[in-house]
Design brief:
Layout lengths: L5 H22 L6 H13 L1 H17 L4 H13 L5 H13 L13 H5 L2 E2 L6 E4 L5 E4 L4 E6 L4 E7 L1 E5 L11 E5 L2 E5 L3 E7 L2 E8 L1 E6 L4 E5 L2 E5 L8 E2 L11 E8 H8 L6 E4 L7 E7 L3 H11 L2 E7 L2 E6 L2
Parallel strand pairs: 5-7, 16-19
Antiparallel strand pairs: 1-4, 2-3, 3-6, 4-5, 6-9, 7-8, 8-11, 9-10, 10-13, 11-12, 13-14, 15-17, 18-19
Helix pairs in contact: 1-3, 1-4, 2-3, 3-4, 4-5
Protein name: FecR domain-containing protein
InterPro entries: FecR, FecR_N, Ferrdict_sens_TM
Pfam families: DUF4880, FecR
Length: 327
């Protein structure tokens, strides 16, 4: 019988975890392709230790949502050393990685550390409701995070990531404080209303379902968005308001409702609710889809595509799904 020394076992596990983390980072990159899929499968089949390491990545994603590969490695190593580590310990580990510069901003664009250290947050695929101390109700969409700062003069929600639906409550009659949602592009001030705020690439989207909101960009430009309208704004300017669809708040009920949406756009929206890579072949991107789909069962939504369109849905790994033209 061969006995493996403890330090050798630790070294082999570390190497396997490092490779698994790198594979996960590869899967989440824009450059990944079919050749990477095949290489990953070969790597998994070549050694049971590789399968073990990949399972550890799987467990971490289920626990914390989408974590890039290099950060997953650091967290996994800490978890292996302290099997019973608490969630707060994991979060401190994430902060330490960023603080020491181990992970670059580009690689960490999916889930910044502020997400996990925020007052309230959701994992990928999770939709959560909460009530603030003044009675205001928030619903956090997938992969979202907010900090809450209530003072004597203002009720402030800082949106760190994702999307939030706000149903404001009345404040003290003696000293009513304004209710504000802040993003990197500016501030949204509620006027007794129900509205959503979503952070996008370089801009913020606001949708108003009741009453109105006042949008102030970071440079001071002010715009009013009334009920039934939506707009987007950058740090400098805001777009003219446009009409809302009646189902634009369906995500609060864990539904994705689309009307004549291009397939690639639909998959981009659906992909917000699942970890890993969800790709659409250019040859099928133009198909138009209409329907209602549960965001807490994205696999079911994907399987439905193959029944409605001439496409094949290929689950190459748990974290890699490709929608291709049916051959």
């Amino acid at each position: 019988m061969t006995v493996t020394a403890p330090h050798e076992l630790t070294r082999s596990r570390r190497e396997a975890l490092q490779a698994a983390a790198q594979w996960y980072a590869c899967l989440c990159s824009e450059e990944a392709g079919p050749a990477d899929e095949q290489a990953l499968q070969q790597w998994l089949d070549s050694d049971p230790m590789h399968q073990w390491a990949w399972q550890r990545v799987d467990q971490l994603q289920a626990r914390l949502g989408r974590v890039p590969g290099h950060l997953a490695l650091n967290t996994l190593e800490r978890a292996e050393q302290h099997v019973s580590m608490s969630r707060r310990s994991v979060l401190k580990g994430l902060a330490l990685v960023l603080g020491t510069g181990t992970l670059g901003v580009t690689a960490y664009r999916h889930v910044p550390v502020e997400h996990w250290l925020a007052d309230h947050h959701t994992a990928t695929g999770e939709v959560k409701q909460l009530t603030l101390e003044d009675g205001t109700r928030l619903i956090l969409n997938t992969a979202s995070a907010v900090d809450i700062h209530f003072t004597a003069n203002e009720r402030l929600v800082i949106l760190r990531a994702g999307e939030v639906m706000v149903t404001t409550a009345s404040d003290s009659a003696e000293n009513p404080r304004p209710f504000v949602v802040q993003t990197p592009q500016g501030r949204v001030r509620a006027q007794g209303t129900r509205f959503s705020v979503r952070m996008m690439e370089g801009e913020t989207q606001v949708a108003v379902f009741e009453h109105s909101v006042e949008v102030t960009t970071r440079t001071g430009s002010q715009n009013l968005c009334p009920a039934g309208q939506q707009l987007t704004f950058t740090a400098d300017t805001a777009s003219p308001p446009t009409g809302l669809a009646p189902t634009d708040d369906a995500w609060t009920r864990q539904m994705l409702v689309v009307q004549n949406m291009p397939l690639d756009a639909f998959l981009a929206e659906l992909g917000r609710y699942r970890t890993g890579v969800l790709r659409c072949a250019p040859s099928v991107a133009h198909f138009r889809i209409t329907g209602a789909f549960r965001v807490d069962d994205t696999d079911q939504a994907l399987h439905a595509l193959s029944k409605s369109f001439p496409v094949s849905v290929n689950f190459r790994t748990r974290y890699w799904v490709a929608v291709d033209e049916k051959k």
